[in-house]
Each structure stands twice: as structure tokens, then as C-alpha cells.
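Quick illustration, no need to memorize.
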Amino acid sequence: MLVFFGAAIYGINLFYNSNYFKVKEIDIEGNDHYADQELMAYVSMYKGSNIFEIDKKEVEEGLLSQFYWLKEADLRKIFPNSINIIVSERRPHIIAYFAGDYFLLDREGVVLEKIGKERALQMDRICLVKNALTYSPEPGDKVAQKNALSCGDIFLAMDNDLKDYFKEARLEKTGEIVFIAHDNRKVVFGTSEDISQKLGILKELLREEITYTKIDLNNFEIPVIN
């Protein structure tokens, strides 16, 4: 019995450590910003490893810490010898300006990267926000205050005509959200509450071609026009 038991343990151990369970293939899905080669360079070290001994959480957390554009990573073991990694990436929500630099931030306020002015101006379908930062952040930092991110929410709710009408958003010292037109006229949104109503009133006022330097939509039912 002892011999049989020992032989069984030896056989199981031999099978466990055989090439049958060594990872031969790693697939990555869901990446757009990062090329396959970039992510594969990080996980290729796991090729040849025993699939049972690969720490799922360690790999996932390692990817998220190394690649700031990744929001989620899910490693799936496909027995006997394959790994599938499904990732989801963050999307730029606003461009925050500080001291001559431009930073891409996602909807959670995570800094994705610093970009040049030319690229920032080309990304005209992402809201440029001034006074959102008080220091120069590093990629991976989570910095944005709620109102800064709300500027992106308001901008996303605008139709293309309104997006083209404004050049940037700003946060006042009071915390109010103000959008600046290309001719430097101002539209005060206050907060991101009642976005659709405020945008509807604004469209009506602009359609009437009113003369103004500032439109205050804090109380959208009674807008103040100066």
C-alpha cells in the first residue's frame, strides 16, 4: 500500500510539473490604446510557467500599476496551458490645463498622460478645463475635483454646434462652472445639475442671437443676461 501510495503521489507530481500544464499561449483582448506588443512584453514572462502557479491577482494588479490607461484586467486560465487576459481601458474625459501643460484625465479623475498643446487643440471633442489643477500631476495620480469632471459631463451633453461654439471651460474660485466662447463671452452653468434644461435654454437664447457678455444659467428658469 505504501509503495502504491508513493507511486501515486509521484505520478501526480510528475503530471503536475509536466509540460502539459506549462503556459504556451497568452492572448490579450480589449486593448485599444496599448498595442498588443506593449502588454505582451509585461506578461510574456509567464510563458513556460505552470498554469496552476500563476497568481491571477498579482498579474492583474501588476498590469494596472504599470499601464495607467488600463481600468480593469481579468486573467482567465484556460486549461491545460493557455491564458486569456481581458482588459478595459480608460477613456479621456477632460483635458486639464496647468502652468502651460495639458493633462488627459478620465471620468474618475485619473491622469492618463501629459500631452502637448498641439495635440490638446486637435482633441476638440474633449473638454478643455482650466483652473482644475493646483499642481503638475504624474500619470496615474487621481486629482480632479468633482466640478472639473462635471465640465466634461456638460460638454458631452452638448450637440456639435455647441461644442464648436465654446473653446474651453473654467472653474471659478467659487467652484462655479463657466464655459468660454471663442469670442470670450461667458456662459455660467454653476453646477452640473439640470444639464439638459440649461442646454435647452442656452440653445434658445443663442438661436435668438441675443447680445450678451455673460449668460448666467444658475437658475435656468430665469437666466440672467448681461
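Residues 2-16 form the longest helix (15 residues).
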